[in-house]
Write a structure and sequence with these properties.
- It comes from Cyclotella cryptica.
- This is JmjC domain-containing protein.
- Keywords: Signal.
- The protein has a single domain, classed as Sandwich (Jelly Rolls), CATH 2.60.120.
- It is 27% helix and 17% strand.
- The protein contains eleven helices and twelve strands.
- It is globular, with a radius of gyration of 21 Å.
- The N and C termini lie far apart (54 Å).
- It binds 2-acetamido-2-deoxy-beta-D-glucopyranose (3 copies).
- One 2-acetamido-2-deoxy-beta-D-glucopyranose binds next to loops.
Amino acid sequence: MHFALGTTSILIFVLHKTAARDDTCRSPSSDDAGNDRFSCASTDIKWKWDPTSKSHPCNIHRISHSDLLRLYGPLGLPNLYPYPLVIYPDDVDSNNNNQGDGSKYRTRRNEFFANLTSIDNLPKQFSADFNVTLTGSDSLSSHRRIVPLTQYLEEVIIGNQHIGFPGETLPYQLGNETWYLFGETFTSEWANFLQNYQLPSCHSCTELHYQQHLVALSFGIGNIGSGVQWHLHGPGFSETIHGRKHWVLYPPQLRPEYDLNYASRHWMENVYPVLDDWNSLDVEKERHGHVEYLQKWKSTKQEGAAQKSVKDPDDAKDEDNGPSNKKPWECTIHEGEMIYFPDGWHHATINLESYTVFVSSFTSEHVSTLEETSK
Ligand SMILES: *[C@@H]1O[C@H](CO)[C@@H](O)[C@H](O)[C@H]1NC(C)=O
Ligand SMILES: *[C@@H]1O[C@H](CO)[C@@H](O)[C@H](O)[C@H]1NC(C)=O
Ligand SMILES: *[C@@H]1O[C@H](CO)[C@@H](O)[C@H](O)[C@H]1NC(C)=O
């Protein structure tokens, strides 16, 4: 990779790898000096949940972009769709395997944007001293740090130097000290740049909604294992532009238990592995939910109404049933694919490649539903 950040970083990377190999593996310890807390390369440690695996499960319904339009019309996904949904580009290259990287798509949306955001091209889209605002990876994302974009790219690729893993965020790194470019991309420079992004197909994602600031775009870059701890907000989409990103979600009434001090990989390492797998009934329920929604939507052609009527009576109340002993809804979003996250669903994300780039579109579906139903 010819990377504009120069040879020094690559050199540190190589030296560090070599040095790490010679040490015996130790578990992470709380060394206050912050040095040498981990003395072996991460690949030498047997993690319970391995982000680099190419075969994480997916229990979320997947639909192609053209099927979405065929089912719901040219505007795409109706407002306040009640379940997570993965939308993948059409035109799958049948010579490629069907669960690989984004290269399987001969044509994909946002191909131009993907070109602009390659690790070589991204810094060229901004002035040389362009700064980015990083946030902590804990649920609250309350910590901030401002650094030049080029410095962040270097940190992402070579990893946290004083901990010493190239391109990787570990389960035991404190969330408030794990810096992440995500969400804080609302300046005019970012707004200009994000005009190159083609919006998802949804009833609240039209050009008009965008111009009226009813869609907020946020851009992010993370390395292996990085990502934000469990949190929730309104509905929207997140498209993976480069790399792979794993999503885990629970419906509003199943509030997961997690440690506020750490990022999402901590939960994947410590809680996820002991949860029960979905059984065939869970799988059937997930599938049936989408079918039922489509039927209701066709008969009412009114999203608010369709959403209300498909809600499971047990789930409809806002009561808090607490953490589930079952695994979450989950799927890996590959290049060119996107996920819809429903309103108020708890979710956490974990990036799976050393350069994972994504764009999230936060929609105003409640506002639009009111407009549509009052017409
Ligand atoms: C990206 O865009 C540049 C300039 O427009 C072009 O020369 C290059 O071939 C493109 N690369 C890819 C991978 O599409
Ligand atoms: C970025 O931050 C540095 C200080 O950290 C400052 O000197 C520089 O002017 C900033 N760049 C821009 C474009 O504001
Ligand atoms: C992060 O949180 C821990 C407590 O969990 C605290 O000891 C540490 O000082 C915090 N770091 C920063 C940079 O605020």
